[in-house]
Design a protein that fits this description.
- This protein starts with a strand and ends in a 6-residue tail after the last helix.
- It has 2 domains: 3-194; 198-234.
- Helix content is 21%, strand content 30%.
- It has 243 residues and is an alpha+beta fold.
- The mean pLDDT is 81.
- Pfam families: PIG-X.
Length: 243
């Protein structure tokens, strides 16, 4: 029986990767396509530019806010959904008859959380623990090739529309269960939080830094302009050669 497990690597910081390993027995669901569905909490999202760079590993459909820099409190309380289509070819007579192992790595990002008051690096409130449900791998198979005792999967309507209305188009969705010894089907990650008490220090320092950078850019621009003007003046004052 096919099964899977998922890990976060690393399990802290703002840029983890979700690594899912799917084990598929020999001759399992030969006429099916293989997919992976993510339903991520509001603090977690995937960068569509990074996903596009992995076109050799999978294709994707994305639902959610793609503004990379906004903190979570500046966005509506909505989740991010991601549907991957994985390359999955049936066994042939020349294929090794061994269980197939498919590993899927999806880069994730965490948004900045809401800052808190009176926290320190030693305080547990300096971090927010986020639980990320495991993705759901599943086969999309012709109804005629699916055993009657096989369980089926229900997904939101907009996901089914991308899958060509699988439940009404002669196909069924067959979920792949987690490994029997996997435990809870979710991972946790610690999100560092800012402190509101630091605003009195951070805001003026940031303003001064931006102002100094602006003066530096202005100084460089004036020096460059002066140098170019000097070259043009010299070129104009040079006498023309008479041949």
């Amino acid at each position: 029986m096919a099964h899977f497990n998922t890990q976060l690597n690393p399990n802290k910081g703002f840029h983890p990767s979700s690594v899912t390993t799917i084990n598929i027995p020999e001759k399992h669901h030969q006429q099916c396509s293989l997919h992976l569905y993510f339903n991520l909490p509001a603090l977690v999202f995937a960068d569509t530019n990074e996903l596009s760079q992995r076109s050799n590993d999978y294709t994707y459909e994305y639902w959610g806010n793609i503004d990379l820099e906004k903190p979570v409190h500046a966005l509506p309380d909505s989740r991010t959904e991601l549907l991957l289509t994985l390359p999955f070819t049936p066994y042939t007579s020349s294929t090794t008859k061994e269980p197939r192992v498919i590993e899927v790595s999806v880069p994730l990002h965490l948004r900045y959380g809401s800052p808190r008051k009176q926290i320190s690096s030693e305080n547990s409130q300096a971090y927010e623990r986020i639980n990320i449900d495991w993705p759901t791998p599943f086969f999309r198979c012709p109804d005629s090739t699916t055993p009657s005792e096989t369980g089926t999967l229900t997904l939101p309507k907009h996901i089914l529309e991308v899958l060509d209305n699988s439940t009404t188009n002669g196909h069924v969705l067959i979920p792949i269960p987690p490994h029997p010894e996997a435990g809870p089907a979710q991972n946790s990650i610690s999100l560092p939080l800012g402190s509101k008490n630091d605003l009195a220090f951070v805001e003026p320092i940031t303003a001064v830094t931006i102002l100094l950078c602006a003066f530096w850019i202005l100084r460089v621009a004036l020096k460059t302009s002066s140098r170019l003007a000097s070259r043009n003046t010299k070129a104009t004052n040079q006498p023309e050669k008479i041949e």
